[in-house]
From TrEMBL:
InterPro entries: DPNP, Inositol_monoP_metal-BS, Inositol_monoP_superfamily, Inositol_monophosphatase-like, Inositol_monophosphatase_CS
One Pfam family matching this protein: Inositol_P
GO molecular function: 3'(2'),5'-bisphosphate nucleotidase activity; inositol monophosphate phosphatase activity; metal ion binding
Alphabetical keyword list: Hydrolase, Magnesium, Metal-binding
PANTHER family: 3'(2'),5'-BISPHOSPHATE NUCLEOTIDASE, PHOSPHATASE
GO BP annotations, alphabetical order: phosphatidylinositol phosphate biosynthetic process; sulfate assimilation
Similarity remark: Belongs to the inositol monophosphatase superfamily.
Sequence positions that bind Mg(2+): 68, 121, 123-124, 270
Protein name per the record: 3'(2'),5'-bisphosphate nucleotidase
Keyword field contains Magnesium: yes
PROSITE patterns from the UniProt entry: IMP_1 (PS00629), IMP_2 (PS00630)
């Protein structure tokens, strides 16, 4: 299958959602609403999920969608003003949107895992979005546990990472078997992307989360050093990190379980799109034990622990160091 129409729909949805997020930033200072798990959500997360679900459901009405957010909180009577604000931003993309339609579109993302389903993260890196740092709109199509289409819109990412003060806004797109490409969010020719090669010593850098609670900075640093990465990490929110590896700007992205939440299970929408983009750019993604990420078990990667993303050539070495590190720390 070429997945051409799925790719085009995912691109359209991601571009519309990214415009909405940027408009929110231009017009207001978004406030964090605290979810039950104490993590933040904003009007932009809700608006983005509404626009994406509306776009996907219009094109593929039978496909389940598994999105991060749900509209329960927006249905509470004391949230009417917030829902009004979300509706205002959704109307900038879908002019006839009503509050009732917006909550139903958001809840279209409460679907279950099927043999074919979409997963989306309306804003990956909400903490980054709130800090005016990196964030990504992430959309992926999964069939039989295999990611077939992955799209990442990164409005705050420099088009050229070595020129951070120049133009921003990057779209990453990949289809299984067809390679990965990046293009300016504003439009332009897609440029095929490739991970770094073993010879590109200047690209031997690693990326990790800004948030210390989303990983293990100390262990990540030790592992990177052990595989010969001298430079300190580039800390970046969201799946923009997958984009950095896919375009060869970094050789490694490490996401090891945080000591603060050792039993945390990663969410499918935090990885699906990024995994395909890196794999199609020639890289490799496994969990910290070397197992492939399993996208068929529910909304979490229940069978996996930690995530290792690399240019491929250093992957085995990283897993070997991790095996040694884990044996040492268990033996202590
Ligand atoms: N204890 C934890 N360990 C790993 N990831 C976590 C975590 N708690 C939350 N996250 C996830 O980390 C994501 C952000 O990743 P990063 O740190 O790479 O920017 C969040 O996505 P959202 O921002 O979409 O909620 C959230 O799903
Ligand atoms: Mg979140
Ligand atoms: Mg996320
Ligand atoms: Mg999110």
């Amino acid at each position: 299958m070429s997945y051409e129409s799925e790719k085009q729909v995912a691109i359209q949805a991601a571009l519309a959602a990214a415009r909405l997020c940027q408009r929110v930033h231009q017009e207001i200072v978004p406030q964090a609403i605290e979810k039950n798990d104490r993590s933040p959500v904003t009007v932009a997360d809700f608006g983005s999920q509404a626009v994406i679900c509306h776009t996907i459901a219009a094109a593929f009405p039978n496909d389940p969608i598994v999105g991060e957010e749900d509209a329960a909180v927006l249905r509470q009577p004391d949230m009417a003003t917030c829902l009004q604000q979300v509706t205002h931003y959704v109307q900038s993309e879908i002019p006839d949107a009503t509050p009732e339609a917006v909550v139903s579109w958001i809840d279209r993302g409460n679907g279950g895992i099927g043999s074919r389903y979409w997963t989306l993260d309306p804003i990956d890196g909400t903490k980054g979005f709130l800090r005016q740092d990196q964030y990504a709109v992430a959309i992926a199509l999964i069939e039989n546990s295999d990611v077939k289409v992955g799209v990442l819109a990164c409005p705050a990412l420099p088009i050229d990472l070595s020129q951070p003060t120049q133009d921003h806004g990057v779209l990453f797109v990949a289809v299984r078997g067809q390679g990965a490409a990046m293009m300016p969010l504003q439009g332009g020719e897609p440029k095929p992307i490739h991970v770094s090669t073993a010879e590109q010593a200047d690209r031997l850098r690693f990326v990790e989360s800004v948030e210390s609670g989303h990983g293990n900075h100390d262990l990540q640093d030790a592992v990177a050093k052990a595989v010969g990465i001298q430079a300190s990490s580039i800390r970046m929110d969201s799946q923009a990190k997958y984009g950095a590896v896919a375009q060869g700007e970094a050789a490694l992205y490490l996401r090891l379980p945080s000591p603060k939440s050792p039993n945390y299970r990663e969410k499918i929408w935090d990885h699906a799109a990024g995994v395909l983009i890196v794999e199609e750019a020639g890289g490799k993604v496994t969990d910290m034990h070397g197992a492939p990420l399993k996208f068929s078990l529910g909304s979490t990667l229940e069978a996996n622990q930690g995530v290792v993303v690399s240019n491929g050539s250093i992957h085995e070495g990283v897993l070997q160091v991790l095996r040694e590190q884990l044996t040492t720390s268990i033996g202590r």
